[in-house]
Amino acid sequence: MKHFLRIALSLFLMGQGLSAQKSLQERLGYSNDAKLLIVHADDLGVIHGVNQASFKAMQEGSVSSASIMVPTPWLPEVAKYATANPDHDMGIHLTLTSEWQLLRWSPVAPRSQVSSLVNSNGYFYPDCNTLWENAKIEEVEIELRAQIEKAIAMGIQPTHLDSHMGCLFSTDPRYYQLYTKLADEYGIPAMVNHQIEQLGGDEIEEPPVVIDQIFGAGTEDFDKDAMGKYYADTLKNLEPGVHVMIIHCGYDNMESQGMSFEHPYWGAKWRQDDYDFFASDECARILEEQNIHLVTWKEIGKLLKK
């Protein structure tokens, strides 16, 4: 009997080891050489045009996921859409900065509880460096929890967490530790690739889900008016694995131009270019020709519940 139990235990542990060695794409039900991609639209909530372009690109184009900025003024429109479309994939774009000159936002938590996160006018700082110089990490946690809880209270069921402007990807490991801790507590994945994972230091446990690469157009592509070329080339050269393409949908209209006044990068034209490509037949054709499968954070999140 003891001999039998030893064999059974050995087989069980062997099976566990084989399961642990499976690639993320295999865990999602694909072959190890499959190319999986999340096309991820950032900044929902910031203005009406960003919301509408992102919704349309999700419904009719190749966008498979989106990310919500809870402190921003058009959050109610996103909440209305999310409750009416519960199958859509929407996470929380954890926000600690307010970068536009003429469109600013403030913390969700009471200012008295997060005073280190704001300037003299009560708005978030415009960039991550200023945030890192002034913020108290305990107040960062108060604010991020407030953002997640507000989204849930408005009927949004977040599928993942990620970081606006990468402010949680600091060389101070406490930011990364807080980021992954919140994802673990809410039972959803955090957007972490192998580079971001290193920010946690050697003593941090590996998160349950680590994607391969995060892509996004750069300022050089915008300056050369080559956004579509960058996206097409990246898709055609995509390697097996699970990847994220971060984009910013919107319309080049007066609302978006007002938001991005004297700030062309990630502004009105940039967002129109992103929308035009990922809503296009060309994008859909390349995805099909390259055998790239669009997936969602919700699918990845189900792995955490198994």
Chart the SSEs and their pairings.
Elements: H1 2-20, H2 24-27, E1 35-44, H3 48-60, E2 65-68, H4 75-84, E3 90-94, H5 128-134, H6 137-153, E4 161-163, H7 173-186, H8 194-197, E5 213-215, H9 219-223, H10 227-236, E6 241-247, H11 254-259, H12 268-278, H13 281-289, E7 292-294, H14 297-304
Parallel strand pairs: 1-2, 1-6, 1-7, 2-3, 3-4, 5-6
Walkthrough of the structure:
The protein is 45% helix and 11% strand. The chain is of the alpha/beta class. The protein has a single domain (25-304), classed as TIM Barrel (Alpha-Beta Barrel). β1 (35-44), α3 and β2 form a beta-alpha-beta unit. The chain is globular, with a radius of gyration of 20 Å. Residues 1-19 have low confidence and may be disordered. InterPro entries: Glyco_hydro/deAcase_b/a-brl (IPR011330), YdjC-like (IPR006879).
Which keywords apply here?
hydrolase; disordered N terminus; alpha/beta; TIM Barrel; Glyco_hydro/deAcase_b/a-brl; 306 residues; 14 helices; seven-stranded parallel β-sheet
User: Structural class of the helices, strands and pairings?
Assistant: alpha/beta
| Tally of DSSP β-strands | 7
Largest sheet geometry: 7 strands, parallel
Q: Output the CATH class name.
A: Alpha Beta
Order of helices and strands: HHEHEHEHHEHHEHHEHHHEH
| Mean pLDDT score | 93
> What's the domain count?
1
Provide the low-confidence segments as ranges.
1-19
The count of helical stretches stands at 14
CATH architecture: Alpha-Beta Barrel
Beta-strand level of the residues, as a percent range?
5-15%
Oligomer: single chain
- Please give the radius of gyration in angstroms: 20 Å
What separation lies between the terminal Cα atoms?
A: 31 Å
Share in helix: 40-55%
Structural shape: globular
CATH-level-4 superfamily name: Glycoside hydrolase/deacetylase
Any idea of the CATH topology?
Answer: TIM Barrel
